[in-house]
Amino acid sequence: MKRELNRRNFVRTAAIGTLGLGLASKSEFLFGKAQQSQARLGIIGLDTSHSVAFVKAINAADAKPEFAGFRIVAAYPKGSSDIKSSYDRIPGYIEEVKKFNVEIVDSIEALISKVDYVFLETNDGKLHLEQALPVFKAGKRMFIDKPIAASLEHAIAIFKAADYYKVPVFSASSLRYMPGIKDVAEGKIGKVTGADTFSPCSLEPSHPDLFWYGIHGVEALIAVMGAGCQTVTRVSTKDTDFVAGVWNDGRIGTFRGTRSGQHGYGGTAFGEKGSMSLGTYAGYDPLLIQILEFFKTGVEPVKREETLEIFTFMAAADVSKKKGGIPVEVAKVRAEAEKKAAKIKIA
């Protein structure tokens, strides 16, 4: 009889335990996993059209399947305080993102407490290091829109800060994802022997010339040619910039930046098996797909050294202009920037 009672107690206890596990599982689904099924994204800087475009793409009711599992939930609007074309946009962009249920917060710290990952979108690259540091300290993965900084030394310092805090970060122009660049990377023209790229190149006095907008075409050039540029020579007029780089293996890559006429984006890559058009601007979606995959995995889709190559190329082009268009050694420009970056406080 006692043995029978013990058996009944065991069955009853097991049944209650099973029921409890079922309820716990259901509760976890309702209040845990389901709520966390969408990663929370935050934006720093509503002074650029990129911010609004990203919100509309990700938070749209009919968002693409590639954007599933993510939602931009908060934004800290402050961006540039001295670039009129940027700060004039902020009030209107605040109203635009509010339509997509994005909460506006009054500090970067408040933003960080509400999100899992961060878009640093402030149009003014001078602010990026200052704005990135609290995000790094909080351990949040971050995409920094172009330009990653308004100086080569700040770009170097940002990556050093990422290393110091052990936080993945990357930066890229949407032009990196022109369709032809992928084809070239896959070897469709064999080894690249040279390339020419072009993009608009409007100027902003607070930034080195190519950093502000010419970066689009320069990034496409470096994406195709790879690292290893040795010297840079720049010819500059009111309406046009033309920059020629000589790589350490003798290859030549050029960038043309335009400030008059009808603007466009594109280029040509030359290879052992032939030449190929790089195509044209393909919108923000290819870049957004890379950013969201980076947020999920923590794997940086653009090598840091390649990003620094882009900024060293542009900084060397600025030196060449100031010296009347003479060839400038890239390594010397990088070494000087490294010295300055070493003095920048990141901790």
Describe this structure in words.
It is globular, with a radius of gyration of 25 Å. It has helices at residues 2-33, 49-59, 84-87, 90-98, 108-112, 128-137, 152-165, 179-185, 209-212, 215-225, 285-297, 304-322, 330-341; strands at 39-44, 70-76, 103-104, 117-120, 141-144, 169-170, 192-200, 229-236, 240-247, 252-258, 266-271, 274-277, 328-329. The strands form two sheets. A seven-stranded mixed β-sheet has the order 12-11-7-10-9-8-13. A six-stranded parallel β-sheet has the order 3-2-1-4-5-6, sandwiched between helices. It has two domains: 35-174, Rossmann fold, CATH 3.40.50.720; 175-341, Dihydrodipicolinate Reductase, domain 2 (2-Layer Sandwich), CATH 3.30.360.10. By secondary structure, it is an alpha/beta fold. It contains 13 helices and 13 strands. Mean pLDDT is 91; it is low at 1-35.
List the helices and strands and how they pair.
Blueprint: H1 2-33, E1 39-44, H2 49-59, E2 70-76, H3 84-87, H4 90-98, E3 103-104, H5 108-112, E4 117-120, H6 128-137, E5 141-144, H7 152-165, E6 169-170, H8 179-185, E7 192-200, H9 209-212, H10 215-225, E8 229-236, E9 240-247, E10 252-258, E11 266-271, E12 274-277, H11 285-297, H12 304-322, E13 328-329, H13 330-341
Parallel strand pairs: 1-2, 1-4, 2-3, 4-5, 5-6, 7-10
Antiparallel strand pairs: 7-11, 8-9, 8-13, 9-10, 11-12
By DSSP (H or I, 4+ residues per run), the number of helices equals 13
Overall spatial form: globular
Indicate the mean pLDDT. 91
The CATH architecture of the largest domain would be 2-Layer Sandwich
Order of helices and strands: HEHEHHEHEHEHEHEHHEEEEEHHEH
Q: Under the CATH scheme, which class of the largest domain? A: Alpha Beta
**Amount of helix:** 40-55%
The CATH topology label of the largest domain is Dihydrodipicolinate Reductase, domain 2
